[in-house]
């Protein structure tokens, strides 16, 4: 896979503004946070739940629609995001009643919701999670500025706090979320999404010239364990 990074300079301003009129966003927020022991969607950053913080980031890209997939029977998560959705008509909430089956079903629900809009203006889909606590607007702008079929994030695997990690295991960079993808291709791939197998294995099968990458090691810091949460709070990335 070829390695390509995008700067956030003025040369991308015009193309980003054009792309921002022709994309939708899927926020995958239905994880059950079993390793963390508490809903990561409700961790607090800058005084508001992460699910709200990430949705506001998505709103800055000026999409045609934002689909947020949340778990079933989590009233606090639903309540938090419903309040924001009431302010922004582009935001739609989808409840995943099979959140325990893996990310693929959440993504499939998001795709179905966008397809139901029947908008001929949507050309790309920006797919995000909620726990990359250092994700920012310039990174999303860089993803949308890319011209390839898929423009994904590239970052290192965060292992410093994983005491159970097999030290002999080879660690490679992650090519993954958030990413921007051609909408028609995403529709084609929907039937191949199963369990925890999201888009990564499908993206790897694309020709190298169809894949762009935006390097950002800050995205390594997602929150999956209590140790990672404590570290993020210590660094001031999340509110104590």
TrEMBL record:
Say yes or no: keyword Magnesium present.
yes
- Could you tell me which Gene3D superfamilies the record lists for this protein? Spore Coat Polysaccharide Biosynthesis Protein SpsA, Chain A (3.90.550.10)
Q: Which UniProt keywords apply?
A: Magnesium
| Pfam families per record | NTP_transf_3
SUPFAM superfamilies for this protein:
Nucleotide-diphospho-sugar transferases (SSF53448)
- InterPro entries annotated for this entry? MobA-like_NTP_Trfase, Nucleotide-diphossugar_trans
Residue ranges of the MobA-like NTP transferase domain?
A: 25-206
Instruction: Keyword check for Magnesium, yes or no.
Output: yes
Protein name in the entry = Nucleotidyltransferase family protein
